[in-house]
């Protein structure tokens, strides 16, 4: 079980309010990603759940039990840190045994659990090595192994892939997703990388300045961002946000168009000049400078013959357009 | 390619000469002490080449008969106990300063530095008056406490620096894994900070071991330490240089194996190496 409820959780450092009172429900077995720009409070929120930071007010309830004042080790949670935080003087096996030793698990049961975790994570050949003798990816797996053996109510991941190179990041991302499928345990994952959020999450929590901007499935957030912040944060390349007359004629302060919802057309649309064209084979990304609405990100399927300086006309798919009011909130009709 | 130019050879020659001079400067007094220890009193101040065979073990025998061995034992007891006490109190203190969040850390660091920097003479008079009242003059326990006031700030200060090099995430990982703060310190942080711990222990032992001033004021006859006992070989009429030389060697010898064993850790600790 791993149902987590945050009731009015608030955190202040002196006069600075890092997390204004916040409510959140995380269902058992859910993969939840906290995402947001640097300094948005996502790591602080995770550390509050872990018990590594004290709340100023509010309550954290795990499986119906109020753990607001419980020690980190007594909350039944396991955490995987960005720097892995492996104990440098212990071998892989000893690192994985440590939480079981603290819990007073009988040796033979501990051995079974460690062996099973090592097998799941392909670590069986490295059990006698010290952390300094492992690669980054292996260290991360040991850190996950140390978390798995505890059979926690939920796993907490604090930007666990940031220290890995791009290729390893993609494969570890898949491994963690696969692990979640196998274990079906609640996972809370903090990242600033919205691609990680989109690909891994059942539910994304977008945070900005300690406030929850929107909670929803990746596609909900992508298709119906509740406000301008979420619209601009989720999606890569970024959504085009257009103010002024083009927005006003559509009854909005700002309109948003995703790059893939812009087409090149022979007539009509907005006239502009290609400033940048990136040819990936599968897609072509263009930046088009228009007179009418400024710079636009455009994404076209497949290879499009476009070069710097070419004159093009681009038109939005009107039914895919997002409209926002003066407060930056989504307009529904 | 090796540089064989004349200017390079001259520079290298000067460098070697300076090195040898420095080596002689630090080693010759030790050699001289060794020679003094083995020379009879009558030949002490003659050049060694005028009577190279005039050697004796009398100095060693007279030291063995004197109170000096007991003074050496007193030195061991007080320096060892005060080091243990300073580590027991100072290590948890340094851990708290390094890894826990509380106000007044800046103040604490200044106070510690002040205690480290202030000359012992500043403490010794009030300490003496208090010890007279408390009946701690000429007791092991009195000297151990006095030495701890010397070694404790040192241990806290140096372990604080050592602990600062250990990532906070290691402590947090331990807490998440269900360890208490005490277990985190004992099972995770201290093994990772072992070079710093050994260096702090050895250096604070030497601090107490080499002390003269506190022992001179606080001890009388039964708990005199070795550095003070050496003074017994200086009398109104004469100075027993041979005995002083033997005593100096006896005072130095026990520290040699300690330094050799701890050398690796001390160098590591000064270099600040903690591998993750």
Overview of this structure, please?
The complex is a heterodimer of chains A (333) and B (276). Helices cover 27% and strands 32% of the residues of chain A. Chain A is of the alpha+beta class. Chain A folds into 2 domains: 4-230, 3-Layer(aba) Sandwich (Rossmann fold), CATH 3.40.50; 237-324, OB fold (Dihydrolipoamide Acetyltransferase, E2P) (Beta Barrel). In chain A, helix 2 packs across helix 3 (107-120). The longest helix of chain A is centred in the middle third of the chain and has 18 residues, at 166-183. The two termini of chain A are 41 Å apart. The relative contact order of chain A is 0.12. Chain B starts with 5 loop residues before the first helix and ends in a 5-residue tail after the last helix. Classes of the chains: A alpha+beta (333), B mainly alpha (276).
Provide a concise account of the structure shown:
Chain A is α+β, with helices and mostly antiparallel strands. Chain A is built from 9 helices and 18 strands. In chain A, 41% of the residues are buried.
């Amino acid at each position: 079980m791993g149902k987590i409820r945050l009731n009015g959780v608030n955190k202040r450092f002196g006069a600075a309010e890092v997390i204004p009172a916040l409510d959140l429900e995380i269902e058992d077995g859910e993969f939840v990603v906290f995402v947001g720009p640097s300094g948005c409070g996502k790591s602080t929120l995770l550390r509050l759940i872990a018990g590594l930071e004290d709340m100023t007010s509010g309550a954290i309830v795990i499986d119906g039990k109020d753990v607001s004042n419980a020690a980190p080790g007594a909350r039944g949670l396991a955490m995987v840190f960005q720097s892995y935080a492996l104990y440098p003087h212990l071998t892989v096996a000893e690192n994985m045994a440590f939480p079981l030793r603290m819990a007073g698990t009988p040796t033979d049961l501990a051995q079974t659990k460690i062996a099973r975790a090592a097998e799941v994570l392909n670590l069986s050949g490295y059990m006698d090595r010290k952390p300094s003798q492992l690669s980054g990816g292996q260290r991360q797996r040991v850190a996950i192994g140390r978390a798995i053996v505890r059979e926690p109510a939920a796993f907490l991941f604090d930007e666990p892939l940031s220290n890995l190179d791009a290729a390893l990041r993609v494969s570890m991302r898949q491994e963690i997703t696969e692990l979640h499928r196998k274990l079906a345990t609640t996972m809370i994952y903090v990242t600033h990388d919205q691609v990680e959020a989109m690909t891994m999450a059942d539910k994304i929590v977008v945070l900005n300045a300690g406030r929850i901007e929107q909670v929803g499935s990746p596609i909900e957030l992508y298709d119906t961002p509740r406000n301008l912040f979420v619209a601009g944060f989720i999606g890569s390349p970024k959504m085009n946000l257009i103010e002024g007359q083009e927005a006003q004629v559509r009854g909005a302060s700002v309109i948003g168009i995703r790059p893939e919802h812009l087409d090149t057309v022979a007539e009509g649309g907005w006239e502009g000049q290609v400033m940048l064209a990136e040819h990936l084979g599968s897609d072509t990304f263009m930046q088009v400078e228009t007179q009418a609405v400024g710079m636009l990100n455009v994404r076209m399927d497949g290879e499009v013959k476009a070069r710097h300086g070419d004159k093009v006309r681009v038109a939005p798919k009107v039914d895919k357009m997002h409209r926002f009011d003066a407060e930056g909130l989504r307009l529904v009709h | 390619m090796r540089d064989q130019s004349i200017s390079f050879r001259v520079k290298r020659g000067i460098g070697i000469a300076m090195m040898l001079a420095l080596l002689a400067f630090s080693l010759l007094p030790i050699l001289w002490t060794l020679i003094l220890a083995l020379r009879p009193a009558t030949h002490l101040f003659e050049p060694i080449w005028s009577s190279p065979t005039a050697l004796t073990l009398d100095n060693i025998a007279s030291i063995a008969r004197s109170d000096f061995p007991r003074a050496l034992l007193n030195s061991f007891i007080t320096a060892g106990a005060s080091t243990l006490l300073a580590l027991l109190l100072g290590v948890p203190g340094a851990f708290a300063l390094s890894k826990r969040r509380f106000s007044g850390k800046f103040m604490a660091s200044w106070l510690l530095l002040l205690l480290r920097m202030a000359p012992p003479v500043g403490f010794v008079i009030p300490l003496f008056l208090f010890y007279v009242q408390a009946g701690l003059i000429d007791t092991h326990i009195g000297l151990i406490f006095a030495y701890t006031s010397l070694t404790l700030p040192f241990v806290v200060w140096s372990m604080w620096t050592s602990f600062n090099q250990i990532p906070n995430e290691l402590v947090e990982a331990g807490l998440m894994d269900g360890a208490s703060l005490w277990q985190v310190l004992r099972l995770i942080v201290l093994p990772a900070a072992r070079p710093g711990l050994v260096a702090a222990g050895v250096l604070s032992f030497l601090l107490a071991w080499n002390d003269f001033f506190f022992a001179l004021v606080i001890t009388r006859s039964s708990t005199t330490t070795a550095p003070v006992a050496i003074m017994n070989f200086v009398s109104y009429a004469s100075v027993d240089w041979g005995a002083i030389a033997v005593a100096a060697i006896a005072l130095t010898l026990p520290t040699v194996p300690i330094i050799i064993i701890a050398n690796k850790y001390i160098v590591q600790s000064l270099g600040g190496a903690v591998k993750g």
